[in-house]
Each structure stands twice: as structure tokens, then as C-alpha cells.
Amino acid sequence: MAAIASASLSRALAGWFNRVLRPAKSNIDDIPAFGDLTEVNTMLRETVQSWYEEAERKGLAAGIKKGVAEGMEKGMEKGIEKGMEKGMEKGMEKGIAMGEVIGEEKGMEKGKTVQTLQFAKTMLQHAEPMEKIMAYTGLSRETIESLTTDLE
Questions:
Q1: Residues 50/30, Cβ–Cβ less than 8 Å
Q2: No. of H helices and E strands in the chain?
Q3: Does residue 115 carry a pLDDT above 90?
Q4: Contact 30, 47 (CB under 8 A)
Q5: Cα 91 from chain centroid?
Q6: How is residue 29 annotated by DSSP?
Q7: How far out from the chain centre does Cα 111 lie?
Q8: pLDDT tens digit string along 8-55?
């Protein structure tokens, strides 16, 4: 008689669980319906194991996603930093090269000017006419006249 009452109680509890508790709790939808409480141990062990595996998959996926995002962010920062360093190096090299060219051109110009002025002074020292000095050097009368004050 006790076995019959126990079996009857087991079926009644299983029916109540399937009708009332399972529909009310959305997070236990993956618990299969059962007809007898003797099935519960195996079913719960399997269900809890599947919950654990699902949580592990979700946690792993979230961890990978977060790791990739953080890795991308750090990688971008490093890439930008290295790109800026390389850009600065190349910019400096080009700037130096351009500066050397410009400096060389200006030096050549200044050297020509100094040489022209020196040539004009030499012509003045040899008493060459103003028009001849202007023609040979391309200097203006005022510039040549200012050289005569340097000679005195």
C-alpha cells in the first residue's frame, strides 16, 4: 500500500511540476517533462550538466569577444604609435634633406653675391668705369656706390 501511495504521490508531484512550475519559470524551459519522480535524479543531473556546459560556452564566447575587442584596441593604439614614429622619422628625413637642398641653394646664392661684390670691388680698385662694372656684375649703381665707401 505504501508503494502505491508513494507512486501516486510521485506522479502527482510530477504532474504539478509540469503544469505549474515549468511554465512559470522561463529559465527552466529546458527541463523536460517527466511522469514520475524516480526519473528526476537522472533528468536533473543531465539538465544541470547541460546548464553548466551552456554557461561555459557563453562565458567562453563572451571572454573571447571581450579579449578580441581589447586586443584590437591595444593593437590599434600600438599601430598608431608605431605609425606616428615611422611618419615622424620619414618626415624628419625629408625635412633634413629639403633643408640641406635649400641651405645649399642659399649658400650658393650668397656665395655668388659675395663673389660678385668682390669682383665689383676689384674693378673699382682698378678704376673701371661704373657702366662697365654694372654690365659685368649686374649690380645697381647704388650697390656699387655703397662699395666705394667700403674701400675708403
A1: yes
A2: 5, 0
A3: yes
A4: yes
A5: 19
A6: T
A7: 48
A8: 777 777 777 777 766 655 555 556 666 666 666 677 677 778 888 888
Whole-angstrom Cα distance, residue 123 to residue 113?
15
Q: Which three cell numbers stand for residue 16?
A: 504539478
Residue 116 CA to residue 65 CA, distance in Å, equals: 74
15 phi and psi angles, rounded to 5 deg: -60, -45
Structure confidence by residue, pLDDT tens digits, 86-113: 999 999 999 999 999 999 999 999 999 9
Alpha-carbon distance of 113 to 93, in angstroms, equals: 30
pTM strictly above 0.85: no
Contact indicator for 11, 35 with CB cutoff of 8 Å: yes
- Side chain identity at residue 125, one-letter code: Q
Find out whether 10 and 36 touch, Cβ atoms under 8 Å.
yes
Cα gap 59→55, rounded to integer Å: 6
- Compute the distance between CA of residue 127 and CA of residue 133 in angstroms, rounded to an integer: 10
Angstrom distance (rounded) from CA 40 to CA 34: 7
Note whether 123 and 136 are within 8 A (CB): yes
